[in-house]
Specification:
- The chain is mainly α.
- It folds into 2 domains: 202 residues, Alpha-lytic protease prodomain-like, CATH 1.20.1510; 76 residues, 2-Layer Sandwich (Alpha-Beta Plaits).
- The chain is built from 8 helices and 3 strands, in the order αααααααββαβ.
- It has a 3-stranded mixed sheet, with helices on one face.
- Helix 4 packs antiparallel against helix 5.
- The longest helix is centred in the first third of the chain and has 31 residues.
């Protein structure tokens, strides 16, 4: 197992344990204080447990080496499970919006309790810690699973922060704020889920990499005046990286060894300088 997979696996386990703790804490306090907002937040943590578990399974499958049936490895498992996470975020956002609208028209309220304040503060501290930890892993290893995870933790921090504000405002019998904020948060989570879904869908549908990455490849090629022309440029996503192939045209008078040395040199330069690419295959034609 690579260091990348080990780090993602560890982050997923820590997230599962953190969310499991918060689920029981918020569930107990929510039922003891009869706070509907806290009970809903507890079920949100339950959803996070399932989401982190999917991240763990997706990373485990993605770490399996290539075999005869899967020549390019199992990297796309990350994106399949990221789709599942986006679906769960869609469901959560719809539930939050529905509850917010219901609360708005029914003027639902809850009784203030210092236990609610303490629980919200503990949740914010735990979730902020998980957010920064998962974000560091996501950026270091370009993992869409960890990206989905840290954005989910960020959403939870915001949700709980506004739950905290709503709990404090309940002292003054102001309950409308909870409904308005709940509606806005639900819509925001929906948009976040939409972005994760689109990114996962694009990779699963073999969408090519960005023009910025392609320009990096072309810049390396242009450094070699021996290359007269290139065509048939293709990029295929394999997990979180890409496999590229293209054809170069060189002087037909070059020896076979010389032309292949040019191709080998370019392949090594591309893989060394562009982390998004793990394999470059160059075909050679005489001009």
């Amino acid at each position: 197992m690579s260091n990348r997979n080990r780090k993602i696996k560890k982050a997923s386990i820590i997230s599962i344990l953190g969310n499991f703790f918060l689920f029981w804490l918020k569930g107990i306090i929510g039922f003891l204080t009869n706070s509907q907002a806290m009970i809903a937040d507890a079920f949100n943590s339950l959803t996070d447990i399932l989401s982190s578990f999917m991240s763990y399974i997706g990373n485990h499958i993605a770490s399996i080496p290539s075999d005869d049936d899967h020549n390019l490895g199992h990297g796309k498992a990350e994106y399949i499970y990221s789709l599942f996470i986006s679906f769960m975020m869609f469901i959560l956002s719809i539930k939050i919006v529905a509850n917010a609208i219901s609360s708005f028209f029914n003027s639902q309220s809850f009784h203030f309790s210092y236990f609610l304040i303490i629980t919200c503060l503990i949740t914010i501290i735990v979730k902020l810690s998980l957010f920064f930890y998962n974000r560091r892993i996501a950026l270091s290893y370009n993992s869409i699973l960890m990206e989905a995870s840290y954005k989910d933790h960020r959403n939870d921090v915001i949700i709980t922060t506004f739950n905290l504000i709503a709990a404090i405002l309940s002292i003054y019998h102001f309950y409308l704020f909870d409904s308005i904020v709940g509606l806005g948060i639900g819509l925001w989570i929906f948009l976040t889920a939409l972005k994760i879904f689109k990114k996962s869908y694009d990779v699963l549908m073999d969408k090519s990499f960005s023009m910025e990455t392609k320009n990096k490849v072309l810049a390396i090629i242009e450094k070699h005046p021996e290359i007269k022309k290139i065509n048939h440029f293709n990029a295929t996503p394999v997990g979180y990286q890409y496999q590229i192939s293209f054809t170069i045209f060189v002087d037909g008078n070059l020896k076979t060894y010389e032309s292949h040395e040019i191709a080998n040199k370019i392949e090594k330069e591309i893989i060394k300088n562009i982390p998004e690419i793990y394999l470059a295959v160059i075909h050679i034609n005489p001009l």
